[in-house]
Design goal:
The protein has a three-stranded antiparallel beta sheet with strand order 1-3-2. The chain has a three-stranded antiparallel beta sheet with strand order 4-6-5. A two-stranded antiparallel sheet has the order 7-8. The protein is an alpha+beta fold. Helices cover 49% and strands 14% of the residues. The protein contains nine helices and eight strands. The longest helix is centred in the N-terminal third of the chain and has 19 residues. α1 packs across α4, α5 crosses α7 and α7 runs antiparallel to α8. It is elongated. 31% of the residues are buried. The C terminus is likely disordered.
C-alpha cells in the first residue's frame, strides 16, 4: 500500500468512527498504535486535529472515563478524503491494459474534441459510451510525443469515432480521419441508422473516410 493510500485509510477510519460515536472524535481505544502514529503525522499536514486538554476533559465526561487522546478530521482532511474516494482511477501501465481494452493515443486536437463530446453528456440524443467520460477524465499525457493515452473498449472506441465525426461535421475532418487511419474505426451513418442508441455506429477498416488528415 502506498503512503497516500495508507493516509486515506486512516482518514477514512477517523471519519467512520467519529460519525459512529456521534461527537466526531475518535478515541485512543479505537485505533491501533501504528494508526495513532500516522494520525500524528497527518496532524502536521493539517488534515487531522488532536484533542486539546479542554476537549479531552469534555470527552472524559461524555465517556465516563479518562480520555487521554482523541483525534478528528479537519475540514481539509474531510475534503482530502472526499476527493481521494472519488479521484480518477490510476491508468494501467502500457502493455497491462485489461484484455477487453486497447491503448489509444490521441493528439491534442483529438483530445480537445473528445472533451467537448463527453462534456455534452445529457444533451446529446446519442450519448457517449458508458465509461468514456471517466477514461477522458483520467487520461494522462505523454509530453514526449504529445499524445493523450486512454484504454478503451471497442464500444468506447466507436463512441470516440462518433464524437470525432460530430467534430468533422462542424469544422475539421483531420481528427476523425486520423483516428480512422490509426485504429480502423470510423462513424458510419448507415450502421448508426440501424442502431442509433449504440452511440457509435462505427465501421472498421477505415473505408470511405472523407477529407484529408
Amino acid at each position: 500500500m502506498r503512503s497516500w493510500e495508507r493516509a486515506l485509510s486512516v482518514l477514512e477510519a477517523l471519519c467512520e468512527r467519529g460519525q459512529a460515536i456521534g461527537h466526531g472524535w475518535t478515541l485512543e481505544t479505537e485505533l491501533l498504535p501504528p494508526h495513532q502514529q500516522q494520525v500524528n503525522a497527518l496532524e502536521g499536514q493539517g488534515l487531522v486535529e488532536l484533542a486539546c486538554r479542554e476537549d479531552r476533559a469534555e470527552l472524559s465526561v461524555l465517556e465516563g472515563r479518562p480520555v487521554r487522546w482523541a483525534a478528528r478530521l479537519t475540514p481539509y482532511g474531510h475534503d482530502t478524503l472526499t476527493y481521494g474516494q472519488s479521484r480518477p482511477r490510476a491508468e494501467p501501465p502500457a502493455g497491462e491494459a485489461a484484455p477487453d481494452r486497447q491503448l489509444v493515443e490521441l493528439i491534442p486536437s483529438q483530445m480537445a474534441a473528445l472533451r467537448v463530446f463527453v462534456g455534452l453528456t445529457g444533451r446529446l440524443r446519442v450519448p457517449p459510451a458508458d465509461g468514456l467520460a471517466e477514461q477522458v477524465r483520467s487520461a494522462s499525457c505523454d509530453h514526449g510525443i504529445k499524445r493523450w493515452r486512454l484504454y478503451l473498449t471497442s464500444e468506447q472506441m466507436e463512441s470516440v469515432a462518433y464524437g470525432l465525426w460530430l467534430h468533422r461535421m462542424t469544422g475539421s475532418a483531420a481528427e476523425a480521419n486520423r483516428f480512422a487511419r490509426e485504429y480502423g474505426v470510423e462513424h458510419s451513418l448507415a450502421r448508426a441508422s440501424d442502431n442509433p442508441s449504440a452511440g457509435g455506429g462505427a465501421a472498421r477498416g477505415g473505408a470511405g473516410v472523407s477529407g484529408r488528415g
